[in-house]
Amino acid sequence: MSAAPHASSDPAPAVPRAPDLNGPIADAIGEAMHAAANYADTAGRFAEMRDLRGLSYAVRSAAACVGTAAELLSELTASSRKGGTRG
After folding, report:
1. What whole-number distance in Å separates Cα of residue 79 and Cα of residue 75?
2. Checking phi first, is residue 82 left (phi over 0); if not, alpha (psi -120 to 50) or beta?
3. What is the DSSP letter of 9?
């Protein structure tokens, strides 16, 4: 009678992968867009209250967040068009 082959309880070694260089920038874009959404919601509330000062602040803040996200996105797409490691 032959014994069953010994099965190791150690997990199989992980195959090394290239680091995800887009991840941190994509995360920052997501955070900027979440902030923009929050400011946009707040702007709607200020508009309902007819609070011009609050409305102005919230709209400018939302626009700044969207602008930041757009700049980060252009950084990602520019490096991928140049054949960089980020794309």
Report:
1. 6
2. alpha
3. S
Q: Which two tokens stand for residue 39?
A: 């400011």
Amino acid at 48: E
HSE value, Cβ hemisphere, 13 Å, CA-based, for 6:
3
- 26 or 81, which is more confident? 26
Amino acid 59 reads V
For residue 31, count CB atoms less than 10 angstroms from its CB and return exposed for 0-12, middle for 13-18, buried for 19 or more. middle
Which residue in the block uniquely carries the two structure tokens 């090394």?
A: 16
Q: What is the pLDDT of residue 22?
A: 80
pLDDT digits (tens, 9 = 90+) for 1-51: 555 555 556 666 777 666 676 889 999 999 999 999 999 999 999 999 999
